Known about the structure:
75% of the residues lie in helices and 0% in strands.
Amino acid sequence: MKLGLIDTSIICSYLVLTIIIGFVLTKRAAKGLNSYFLADKGLPYWILGVSDAGGMFDITGTMWLVYIVFVYGLKSVWLPWLWPVFNQIFLMVYMSKWMRRSNAMTGAEWINTRFGSDRGAVLAHISVVVFALVSVIGFLAYGFAGIGKFLAPFLPWGFSPNTYAMALMLVTAVYVVAGGMYSVVLTELLQFTVLTISSLAVAIVAMTKISPEAISAAVPAGWKDLFFGWHLNLDWSGLIQSVNVKIAEDGYSLFTIFFMMMLFKGVLVSFAGPAPNYDMQRILATRSPKDASKMNWFVCCCLFFPRYLMISGFTVMGLVFFSPQIRAMGSHIDFEQILPYTLSNFMPVGVLGLVLAGLLAAYMSNFAATVNAAPAYVVNDIYKRYINPNASRRTLIVMCYVVSFAFLVVGILFGLHARDINQVTQWIVSALWGGYTAANILKWYWWRFNGYGYFWGMITGIVAALVLSKFPFLYLWLYPDIAANLYPLYSFPVILVLSTAGCMLGTLLTKPEGDEILMKFYRQVRPWGFWKPVHEKVVQADPSFKSDANFKRDMFNIVIGIIWQTSLVVLPLYIVIREKKSMYEAIAVLIITSFILKKTWWNKITD
Length: 607
């Protein structure tokens, strides 16, 4: 289906408006690096929260979520814990304010707050920069490979998917490079508004066209159940037999074991704190540590409800109307066709253009945040620190422009060869994440951990993850029956042990960081954990010092926060499928947990 004049005009108008915003803000962004990367740390937390939420609302993720809701029903709510989505609660409760107290510009610069500036700190700094830049390239290539294929069936000009992808990336890059963080954030406000309206439109169309009875007839028993037993217990026989094969391939049949492994990994990754990407950049751009915590609360408020309205709308239309085509595919099921099919066949004129503009906004928001993160590490953490420390403001801003476009070109080149390197890119990203956890847990919670330990922990973890990814037989004797796509998850404990060994050896075979560095970090960040020797020295030097760290209260708020966040996810699903009893229960849980968090978290946030 090709777009008509009205829908095409809506999309073009949206793209032109984003470019105008970027150029209007060029002068303001060019005042200096703090303006370009962090918008002078002057934006309200709710604006940064909307921006961060928009950066997470991507097309590829939306297509994957439609697939898992289609196949697994309400139990799909738990699958995004693989990322894990509840890391936002850890950030909200305590991690964001710890990070913001550093007053750093990037995640790599933050390393100086913790480890100082000796050789170990330099090695740790370099490892974070490498992690951040490889991640940027991987995500740019990943986005390039998907957006063109999504757009090609709709746009009327007949160009190739790669041409559409390059055009959209260039349009987005223009306003990102010109306006820096200011244009990224303010265009993401526009994008999120379009996304929210689009999500409501999709949900309303789905609820208008499909009855609850039609949904019940299209799904197996247990599809509407949120909770689970030892086994998944979803049988698509008689409906779409080949979906049972897909469930077996995914490896989720023994759901309790999978859930426990996913929770184990997710909690540890969340304890490690944010990765050095656009999420961390939004935290560092807030006005204060208190605002940093509130920002991540607002991310949850903005992201989950509208996104799952859209996802549930697409899913139920796919269940009722697209099931015959899925049955006809046999063993070659392509769930990615659900999104374009429902858009082509069920969105009215005007609404289709709005929804497509919303999905484009999702892609552009994620892409813009990724592009804006890259020059922060190259210009601030490499060029300014090691090559030209005395560079003028104009030189640094020009370097930002150059680096942004350079990464754009590299991302496009990788994307053009995505068929050949997609698997490699996925392994690189998985390896980087696998090697990230141990070192980044210890840096927060153990005073003895030093820069050498951080460096060797990161290197050991990344190498172990790469080797195990390439040769899974080295650990499969531990898990002989797991599905292939679960190899990265089940290799996590092995990588964690090896990376922890690298951390411990690197730390214990070298001297501790100096008292001055540790005491300054502890006074500034005030973490809980194994900091007693440093705490005693700080109190001895300043008897009036008091830490606001409270481990028990933070852990309680994390548990309540995860329940609160989950209610925000399930509520729109229950609304769209018209499960009234469950909907009222979700509303009750949302109200109760919100009240508890107001008393035990919001009222007690400090700078």
